[in-house]
Amino acid sequence: MSNFDAIVIGSGMSGGYAAKELTERGLKVLVLERGKNVVPAEDYNDTVPIWERPNLGRIPQDELEEHYAVQNKAAGWAMNWASKQFFVKDSEHPYEEADDSKFQWVRGYHSGGRSVLWSRVALRLGPQDFEENKKDGHGVDWPVRYKDIAPWYDKVEKFVGIAGQNEGLPQLPDGVFQPPFALTDTEKHLRESVKANFPGRTVIHTRTANLTQPTEEQMSLGRAPCQARNQCHEGCSFKAYFSSVNATLPAAQRTGNLTLINNAIVHSIEYNAAKKRVSAVHVIDKITKNTSRYTAKLIFLNASTVGSAMILLQSKSESFPSGLANRSDQVGRNLMDHVTGAGITGRLNKFAHLTSYGRRPCGIYIPRYGNITEDGKPYIRGFGYQGWSSPVNTLNKRRPGIGREFKESYKHPAPWEINLYAFGEVLPNPDNRVELHPTKKDKWGLPVAQFHTTMGENERIIIEEARKDAIAMLEEAGFTDIKAPKGHITAMGNRVHEMGTARMGRDRNTSVLNGWCQAHDVPNLFITDGSFMASSACQNPSLTYMAFTARAANYAADKLQAGAL
Amino acid sequence: MTADRRQFIFGAISLVGGNALLASCKSEPNIKPTNIANSGPLFYSAADFVLVTRLCDLILPRTETPGALDAGVPAILDSLMDQWANSETQSNHRRDLADIKTGLDANSGGNFIDAEYSVAEAGLNVFDTAAFSDEHAHFAYQGLKQLIEVAYAASEAGSETYHRNPVPGYWDPAVPIDTL
User: Are both A468 and A522 inside the same structural domain?
Assistant: First the structure.
């Protein structure tokens, strides 16, 4: 099948955005999605009240163990009866961890991919994040600087809808924001204390992709303001949080230029050596296992960091015997995530007379300060914190008492508890990689992924220092009952922020992509999921994926329309 | 289940103040608890069901708002243990109930179930206080109590009691508790 200007492989965070940009530029676009379609009006279960859900919305324990062991281990807090349809069954999608490697691969195979599941924290990278590889020698120099991507952050934020507040922080640049979800008084107290006692550190509102004041464009896509339910992982019938299903795919659909094919598992991308271009995509139907071949002038690979690397490695040819666009041998390498440890909690009595109403879908953020506003750290790069606060007599928290007093304890004055989790940068390391397993295949005959991944010493130091710093900030602010367990560090993959397996760089011998997310060796192949990231920074990366996707898509459309691809 | 066993359970529930539960079982509940009226408990023994019923009644009694029995919490727990729990959880739960009952009997003049309401209430109060102390922390009891509250809060009646609006519509971070 042919006649497409572009094929986008994957419909998640970046694939959806690529489809939107390319179709709006007038290109006829085919999106290949390996999973089922998701139609909000038919598939979302978010409006079913908990008392109508089987087992109070809990997934039976045997089912979790048999089918969702990895998903539940890493993201069990987001899994329930309504959201489990957005997680893969591990029993159907096995993978391997080599030697002592640990990797938790959390996935969702359906239209929208993990954009349906994300936790919506939408942060820009700062100028330092594009410069540190060059300065400290870890990884390769980004071929892009902040000023290059800043206008694309503006464009994406305006379309996506980010609730947040400008703070004037150089390391976490301001953006195009809708009104933020207000801080609790406990969070305001911490903000003021940190400001007074830790110059260079700041407690801010989480910048979150939930609409608080939708624009005309957002409303035209059927999107409404957030209803403060905090059920975002179930999909949202109000389409108040951003996902491909809620926003970019409908935007692409209304151009009339989109064709979406579901259950389309990409086997490989075909390379035409004579034209030195990719020319087709080979697909296995998930249900029938029939194969198809689709052609286009341009291919955007957005199958997720691991998925895209696997497709490249499967796409072998005489020109690329070790995998498409892999002359540098960097495809699959430099696999990064973020690192965190146990949460730090503390209690404050000052606002015991208050509680809250509604369920905010976000909390607070403490942007990175290590090696930016504070020097002399025993680690390189740095970390930020995510957090939130709530009264300790919140329902469902274990506490003493029986009878009327217990039942009405939610009306009683009680301390507030704050929770902080560090999100640390993971350094690029070529030995952290995914490869094709030499013998094991999945049910479609494709090699399963084999991971070689470990957290390094810098990551361990980051988490320990983050623990100490959090304790100091909470103590200084007067929090008591501080609990900060030591010694826990997450496995790679646990934060669901994989990136780096087809990094961009200035040198085609040490990187896969140029600064436009364009393969050095294949001009009409673009990779704009997390694969392109040359470093992980410590900020949640989805906004950056979308900004680079928008930039690359418009670059590619320009070139295509100019006959230069 | 035989008619005799069902009658025994109904009698036992009435004994510990479960008339509200029986009333709720006559209607069609939305939460899909065990339909006690039709089948009796699916997971609990008759004695365990009576114990859970008494605990629910004492921990979350009917006040100006519906109690745990009004919300059908014992039947919800029975359903959870039957349909959600795996065999390990089921086994642990049975063991924990037996352990909890032993402690409560000791605090209630020898028989927590048969004791007068006030005696059982006093016995549970002592047990609960100890269960949350550092020295005698009883995590199984804490877990059971949490499950009772979770089930209550998840019920339609409990949601109303706790002002837990399924669609709040907005976020207010600072609500004076004296306005609740």
Answer: no
Q: Reading across the β-sheet that carries A96-97, which strands appear in turn?
A: A96-97, A447-452, A433-441
Please report whether residue A54 resides in a domain: no
A481 contacts on B by Cβ (under 8 Å): none
Distance from B108 to chain A by nearest Cα, in Å? 15
Alpha helices in B43-155 (DSSP H): 46-59, 73-79, 87-107, 117-131, 139-154
The reply to whether A443 touches chain B by the CB within 8 Å rule is no
Rg of chain A in Å (alpha carbons): 23
Residues from chain B that touch A392, judged by Cβ atoms under 8 A, are none
User: Structurally, how many domains does chain A consist of?
Assistant: 2
Does A355 share its domain with A481?
yes
Give kind and range of the element (H or E) at residue A542: helix A542-561
Gap between the Cα atoms of A135 and A127, Å rounded:
13
Beta-carbon contacts of A251 under 8 Å, excluding residues fewer than 6 positions away, are A20, A23, A24, A159, A221
Determine the Cα–Cα distance for residues B109 and B112; give it in Å rounded to an integer. Answer: 7
Q: Does B177 touch chain A (CB under 8 A)?
A: yes
* Residue A435 and residue A420 share a domain: no
Confirm whether A316 is domain-assigned. yes
Query: Mind giving me the DSSP string for B64-84?
Result: SS--TTTTTHHHHHHHIIIII
Under an 8 A CB cutoff, do B169 and A358 touch?
Answer: yes
Same-domain pairing of A332 and A467: no
Nearest to A358 among B128, B170, B178 (CB): B170
Q: Which A residues 214-273 touch B at CB under 8 Å?
A: 227-229
Q: Is ipTM beyond 0.95?
A: no
* Structure-block tokens of residue A339: 């690192």
Are A532 and A309 in contact by the 8 Å Cβ rule? The answer is no
Among partner residues A51, A185, A228, which is closest to B156 by beta-carbon distance?
A51
Only one residue has tokens 């320009």, namely: A558
Does the CB of B161 have a partner CB in chain A at under 8 Å?
Answer: yes
| Alpha carbon A46 to its chain's center | 21
The DSSP code sequence of A368-407 is --BTTTB---SSSS-EEEEEEEEETT-TTS-----HHHHH
Is the CB of residue A483 less than 8 Å away from at least one CB of chain B? Answer: no
Distance, C-alpha A310 to centroid of its chain: 19
Residue A104 belongs to domain spanning:
1-39+86-163+245-336+431-453+498-565
Render each residue's pLDDT in chain A as its tens digit; 565 residues.
567 999 999 999 999 999 999 999 999 999 999 999 999 999 999 999 999 999 999 999 999 999 999 999 999 999 999 999 999 999 999 999 998 899 999 999 999 999 999 999 999 999 999 999 999 999 999 999 999 999 999 999 999 999 999 999 999 999 999 999 999 999 999 999 999 999 999 999 999 999 999 999 999 999 999 999 999 999 999 999 999 999 999 999 999 999 999 999 999 999 999 999 999 999 999 999 999 999 999 999 999 999 999 999 999 999 999 999 999 999 999 999 999 998 999 999 999 999 999 999 999 999 999 999 999 999 999 999 999 999 987 666 788 999 999 999 888 888 999 999 999 999 999 999 999 999 999 999 999 999 999 999 999 999 999 999 999 999 999 999 999 999 899 999 999 999 999 999 999 999 999 999 999 999 999 999 999 999 999 999 999 999 999 999 999 999 999 999 8
Indicate yes or no: CB of B171 within 8 angstroms of CB of A181. yes
Cα separation, B99 vs B89, whole angstroms: 15
Is the CB of residue A389 less than 8 Å from the CB of residue A417? yes
| In a domain? residue A71 | no
Distance (Å) from the alpha carbon of A107 to chain B's nearest alpha carbon: 24
Taking alpha carbons only, the member of A557, A528, A522, A532 closest to residue A156 is A528
The mean pLDDT of chain A is: 97
**A271 contacts: CB under 8 Å, gap ≥ 6:** A277, A278, A279, A315, A317, A319, A320, A324, A522
